[in-house]
Design brief:
By secondary structure, the protein is α+β, with helices and mostly antiparallel strands. It contains 36 helices and 31 strands. It has a 7-stranded mixed beta sheet. A 7-stranded mixed beta sheet has the order 8-18-13-14-12-17-9.
Length: about 900
């Protein structure tokens, strides 16, 4: 089922301030300025269209799109050009939601003004409406046209009791769910049950918070804690899952669904709830729900009339309605629909792409590193074999299949790849050679950052659904899995008994959780619909080990790699602390506004980087020393600091960040006492103010500083010792002077170049000669572009060529200026504003060349002639990204059949690629 994308405005607050928060802007200008974004449909947008009586006519939209495409193939006339522009404007008008905008708040003072006074856009006032948890982290707020906002608020409140006390940040998060992209599904028959909690006792690294500028205290403590065993999880019958799958056009029934409805969110796991009542509950289908009858007793419901069971944690505002019926009636009255934002795949992947957080927390020596990198190294080397089919599989990603290849051909947007699949001669195109070369280089750089390949995948985290049905039916809750027992259909089918499970972000060693996988007659019967998913028991503390996971569609990575499993620190204790409790209040709009500002921005990334620097530093320190133990304690503290940052928005007050002594040198004064001097000396000796070496592949600023430092010492090294710096490092016998020189190099280096796990992985991959430059030197056909033309005998009009070249020159000038701004940004972070401006210039180019030639087929022939023949240095990305589909169609016309790799049995394969066997198959066009 198609989920349409709608256009909305998105602004930076500084831009609005320039115009005194009063701006006039039409759609095409906004497009050029990069201030138009596309959003997949969501409940907020649906409700706005309802308020404005602007239902989307899918039939009319498709008709307009077809007409636009017809005109692009029609004769070049002024009338056709005008109709194309008119048709595009009609399409944009249908898909543009002018009442909804998002604003990135670059300064709190900007938000103060906008909240108090609103934004005037095209003569209409826009007011604050919402900021979801994800939006708040990037300081973004939704504003809605004032009159529309009043009606929209009534719809979103959905008849709830407005006197109920709530935590402002929680309400913001729940309300923001209406902005989640969803595909509509039919409303199920559902009920809500109370959360199930049970007690567990475990030993942990317990963090005791101290002053903001001091290190926290950490002690081993036995903790008894109540666990919400099905937090964020519900159950859905197979029949309802099948119904939704059919509605979405799926040819399988997902094991898990991520659902949204008004103030409802979470994961639903497919389970045979009705059969459980019949077989395991003596045919009794009656259960207690969270609502009460007139006598104050729990309402009883017959599960034969229910297809979805929600928990209290999934519907936290349940008590804002007198009954479930009242809630459902309001949903129907306000046209609020059940939606699906995610669902489990038909088939799990077989390859896991690791990351540096997963790897740096393992105990791996250099031999181990060579082992865990072997699949990645072999993968990249395979592209250099000269086998076009291996190259195609590489370009298609780690999970290539016949279905994926055909989807790329029929629906994909990477048109040079599609063209290469059907015509292998395109390997002689310099442009395509360079694209493949650049992709391989990027993959190698990613490998240096820890993105290596292992056997494994990501799956949804599920709490024992059998245990949940026991609870729902009022039985003793034992589950099918005992403590330290787990289940995975995927790994069971491979005969694997133990895997390492990891959840991002992973900060400390204890967050590697070894799973003890079970398989018996009962699990295969009751978990039969959970063909994917990592099911954990309801007796243990896995959610603590996963640093605060729940079951609202959290995903975990698992791998069976023996070296990784061996490298897990087995006896590490999990890290926990006493999180402050947020206060429920009868909130006002002012409270929501203040909550937004507390939520803005996040230093979680900075904390993660500090823990990574600490791991790099740890490798330079001797185990058992005070320096080592203090650094290790700081890594543990980073886990708590991250949790506190998440809690910051909930409690509405400042929380502890990174103590300044971790990153700032402390001057030692003569008059200080010995203890104070010792504390400062210790802190100064273990500062984590530098990135690890492998971060030179992540931050260009760090890379430039390191390269400058290295070059300076390399020149000096050659002058003093007659050898390069690398030769000196590798020298087995060094003089005292040479040792001192290397010590100075390390002391003043802008990076921590230690033998930590990630630096060693980076160095190992750097040491491999992948021989990729030969790709650029093999056969090149300068006339390959002739096969891209629709009319190979076309005589080109010089006047039209000059017009197009002039338009391109203007485009190139502006884009070059914007690109130089990105290169000049020392932070080297993604600049969304400039990116959007470049996209705006991209749209302008398309519109401008349309004025020269309305027939796209003819236009593309001209562009190919210009970009390949007349000016081969022109940026061909613009050509392929904008008109690649037309080029692909031209190539396809001259192909009667093509050959693709398809999965094969053991006895018939000719290609072995990332755990899969492939043979060649012909496809007729």
């Amino acid at each position: 089922m198609k989920n349409n994308r709608f256009f909305t405005y998105k602004f930076k607050s500084s831009r609005l301030k320039e115009f005194n928060y009063n701006i006039e802007l039409d759609f095409n200008d906004a497009l050029q300025y990069g201030e138009v974004i596309a959003l997949f449909d969501n409940q907020m947008l649906r409700s706005i269209r309802k308020i404005k009586d602007r239902d989307l006519d899918e039939k009319e939209l498709n008709s307009l799109v077809e007409r636009k495409n017809e005109l692009k193939r029609a004769e070049n006339t002024k009338e056709n050009k005008n109709e194309i522009i008119e048709t595009k404007n009609k399409i944009n008008e249908m898909l543009f939601i002018q009442e909804y905008i998002t604003i990135v708040m670059e300064n709190n003072s900007h938000y103060d003004y906008l909240y108090k006074n609103g934004l005037t856009l095209n003569g209409k006032t826009f007011v604050r409406f919402s900021s979801s948890a994800g939006q708040a982290r990037v300081s973004t707020v939704v504003f809605v046209e004032e009159e529309t906002a009043k009606e929209l608020q009534i719809i979103m409140d959905n008849g709830r009791n407005l006197d109920k006390k709530l935590v402002p940040s929680k309400y913001n998060a729940y309300k923001g769910l209406a902005g989640s992209a969803t595909q509509i599904v039919s409303s199920p028959k559902f009920c809500v049950v109370k959360d199930y909690e049970s007690e567990s006792t475990y030993t942990a690294n317990y963090v005791i918070e101290t002053d903001l500028d001091k290190d926290d205290e950490i002690e081993n403590r036995e903790i008894t804690e109540m666990f919400n065993r099905f937090d964020g999880q519900g159950l859905i019958s197979y029949e309802q899952s099948k119904k939704w799958a059919d509605e979405l056009g799926l040819d399988y029934v997902p094991a898990q669904w991520c659902v949204r409805q008004n103030f409802i969110k979470g994961m639903l796991n497919t389970f045979d709830i009705h059969r459980f009542c019949e077989v395991k509950n003596n045919g009794d289908y009656n259960i207690e729900t969270i609502y009460e009858d007139e006598s104050g007793n729990p309402q009883i419901i017959d599960l034969r009339n229910v297809d979805v069971i929600l928990t209290e944690s999934q519907f936290k505002l349940w008590d804002s309605w007198d009954s479930l019926e009242a809630y459902e009636e309001n949903c129907e009255k306000n046209d609020l629909y059940w939606g699906v934002s995610l669902y489990s795949p038909k088939k799990d992947k077989d390859i896991l792409r690791m990351n540096y957080q997963f790897l740096q927390t393992l105990n791996l020596n250099k031999d181990d590193i060579k082992s865990v990198c072997s699949k990645f190294v072999n993968w990249v080397n395979g592209v250099n074999s000269g086998d076009i089919y291996y190259t195609l599989l590489f370009l298609l990603g780690s999970e290539a299949s016949e279905e994926k290849i055909m989807n790329v051909i029929n629906f994909g947007e990477n048109n040079w790849l599609k063209s290469l699949i059907i015509n292998h001669d395109l390997m002689k195109d310099k442009y395509i050679k360079r694209k493949i070369y650049d992709l391989i280089r990027r993959r190698i750089k990613e490998g240096c950052m820890g993105k290596i390949l292992l056997d494994g995948n990501f799956q949804t985290l599920v709490s024992d659904p059998y245990a949940m049905m026991q609870y729902v039916c009022g039985q003793e809750v034992t589950g099918l899995l005992g403590e330290n027992q787990h289940y995975s259909s995927y790994w069971n089918n491979k005969g694997i008994k133990t895997v390492d499970a990891m959840r991002a972000p992973l900060t400390y060693r204890s967050e590697h959780v070894l799973l003890n996988l079970q398989k018996n007659e009962e699990t295969e019967d009751w978990y039969k619909y959970s063909y994917t998913g990592i099911i954990i028991n309801i007796h243990g503390v896995e959610t603590v080990r996963f640093a605060g996971s729940d079951f609202d569609f959290d995903i975990v990575a698992t791998t069976s790699d023996e070296t990784v499993i061996k490298g897990v620190y087995k006896d590490e204790l999990p890290i926990t602390y006493q999180a402050p409790k947020p206060q429920k209040i009868k909130f006002t709009d002012e409270d929501l506004f203040k909550s937004d500002k507390f939520s803005f921005g996040s230093i979680i990334g900075s904390i993660t980087n500090k823990s990574t620097s600490a791991f790099a530093l740890l490798a330079q320190l001797k185990e058992g020393t005070v320096e080592y133990e203090t650094t290790l304690k700081r890594i543990k503290m980073c886990t708590k600091l991250q949790s506190a940052q998440i809690d910051k928005a909930k409690i509405g007050r400042k929380v502890k960040g990174i103590p300044p002594s971790w990153v700032n040198y402390q001057k030692i004064k003569d008059e200080e006492d010995e203890l104070s001097k010792q504390v400062k000396e210790l802190s100064n000796s273990i500062m984590i103010d530098r990135h690890p070496y492998f971060f030179t592949y992540l931050y260009s600023g760090t890379r430039n500083k390191y390269n400058k430092h290295f070059k300076s010492y390399d020149i000096t090294c050659q002058q003093r010792f007659g050898k390069t710096l690398n030769e000196l490092k590798l020298s087995k016998r060094k003089t005292k002077e040479e040792h001192e020189f290397l010590n100075l190099f390390d002391k003043y280096s802008p990076v921590i170049d230690s033998d930590c796990v990630m630096n060693n992985i980076c160095r190992y991959i750097e040491s491999v000669d992948f021989k990729i430059k030969h790709l650029l030197k093999t056969d090149v056909d300068e006339d390959i572009h002739l096969s891209y033309l629709n009319d190979k005998n076309r005589i080109f009009d010089e006047g039209k060529i000059n017009d197009i070249v002039s338009i391109y020159s203007n485009y190139k000038k502006i884009v070059s200026q914007l690109s130089s701004e990105i290169k000049g940004d020392k932070k080297s972070k993604f600049n969304e504003e400039i990116y959007n401006e470049i996209n705006g210039q991209h749209e302008k180019f398309k519109n401008d060349v349309l004025e020269v030639m309305s027939n796209e087929v003819d236009l593309v022939d001209y562009l190919i002639h210009i970009f390949y023949k007349l000016s081969p240095s022109y940026n061909k990305d613009l050509l392929w990204n904008t008109y690649g589909q037309t080029i692909f169609n031209n190539i396809m016309k001259n192909v009667s059949e093509y050959t693709i790799p398809v999965e094969a049995n053991e006895d018939e394969y000719s290609i072995d690629y990332l755990n899969k066997k492939y043979k060649l198959a012909k496809v007729e066009c």
